[in-house]
Design a protein that fits this description.
single chain; mainly alpha; 2 domains; two-stranded antiparallel sheet; 53% helix; 6% strand; elongated; binds zinc ion
Length: 219
């Protein structure tokens, strides 16, 4: 079992010194959920740090620049990143996504907001999960519109967006995206199979969490 090591960091924004669990390379177990949800979210626990004083969230809070510092000091950022009703593990991903969005990096923001969605659901934060999902959908669409990707196959990216729509009971949007993807994209056999299962769930107005294993068993 890996041991967690702690490292001392000085916050770039407020200069406070704190000790944080060392992150390291973010490597997930294979996806189990239709939205790419891995079986184990532990790698996310320490991949982003948040300063307890100014709420600056980053993979490395000792690094930053003046633009990031001004985003962190902004009222809107403080209201979100310092919102104590949201679990800190979730909040730091929302905060990093907000920074990435503000500096024009919507693909990194999209990926990060998807992580926030998974963590929020794991911690049973119903209202925050819904907000994270909707924000993730917007950022994922923005990333794809800009010609970017959030590190999945294109089929799996579109499947993840359709799955988030479905979980939010936005069945019309989910169905339109599934049909469009199946009609217009060249997909791997695996991705096409999962999109067809997703389509079936959408048509049944099923908004429950669904797994790849379940698709293989039931479809
Ligand atoms: Zn700080």
């Amino acid at each position: 079992m890996a041991t967690l090591t702690f490292i001392e960091k000085k916050c770039y924004v407020c200069n406070a010194v704190g000790r944080f669990g060392e992150g390291g390379f973010l490597m997930f177990s294979p996806p189990v959920g239709l939205d790419g949800h891995p079986s184990n979210l532990t790698p996310l626990f320490t991949a982003i740090h948040i300063c307890p004083h100014c709420f600056y969230a980053s993979p490395d809070i000792s690094e930053g620049n003046e633009i990031i510092a001004s985003i962190v000091k902004d009222e809107r950022y403080q209201a979100i990143a310092g919102n104590g009703t949201i679990h800190e593990l979730v909040r730091k991903y929302i905060a990093w996504a907000l920074i990435q969005n503000r500096i024009g990096n919507d693909c990194e923001a999209a990926r990060t907001m998807l992580y926030a969605t998974w963590l929020s659901e794991q911690y049973g934060q119903v209202s925050a999960t819904s907000q994270c999902r909707r924000r993730a959908i917007t950022l994922m669409n923005s990333c794809l519109t800009q010609g970017g990707n959030f590190e999945m196959t294109r089929g799996k990216e579109l499947l993840a967006i359709a799955d988030l729509y479905r979980r939010e009971q936005m069945f019309d949007e989910a169905l339109a995206l599934c049909e469009d993807t199946l009609a217009k994209h060249t997909l791997s056999e695996d991705d096409e199979f999962l999109l067809r299962y997703e389509e079936k769930l959408i048509r049944n107005h099923n908004s429950l969490y669904a797994t790849i294993a379940e698709a293989e068993k039931n479809f």
